[in-house]
């Protein structure tokens, strides 16, 4: 992939937000390890010139003692005349471009719930997606 593949990031939308606060949760002194699963769905237009990618996170779904449960999904629309570049972009780069938007929704939602905001640390989304494909 070249340095300028000619791909436009047209729009991003919050398409799902489900949040449930556990009012009985007591934060341990050591903090709480984040239980988060990521999911990516992609679809191309019939002419293959636009890509819609949905990046979703589910937090504290596998934990019995949780501060909150949350599912959040953001959708991005990308367009290009170069079909091959767009297909390659869809594998890692499209979800990576959506990650800051997902991170912001999670941080803002937890802040507005009057709990310590959950600021997701930097992580390698490429490795996470590879692991997900294996498992």
Helix content: 25-40%
Number of strands: 4
User: What gap, in angstroms, lies between the N and C termini?
Assistant: 27 Å
Summing up helix and strand content along with how strands pair, one would put the structural category as alpha+beta
Report what the structure shows.
The protein has 135 residues and is α+β, with helices and mostly antiparallel strands. Helices cover 29% and strands 33% of the residues. The protein contains 3 helices and 4 strands, in the order E-E-E-E-H-H-H. The protein has helices spanning 83-91, 93-112, 125-134; strands spanning 8-21, 36-44, 50-59, 68-79. Strands 1-4-3-2 form a 4-stranded antiparallel sheet. The chain is elongated, with a radius of gyration of 17 Å. The mean pLDDT is 90.
Task: For the structure shown, list the relevant keywords.
135 residues; alpha+beta; 4 strands
Detail the topology: elements first, then pairings.
Layout lengths: L7 E14 L14 E9 L5 E10 L8 E12 L3 H9 L1 H20 L12 H10 L1
Antiparallel strand pairs: 1-4, 2-3, 3-4
Q: TL;DR?
A:
This protein has 135 residues and is of the alpha+beta class. Helix content is 29%, strand content 33%.
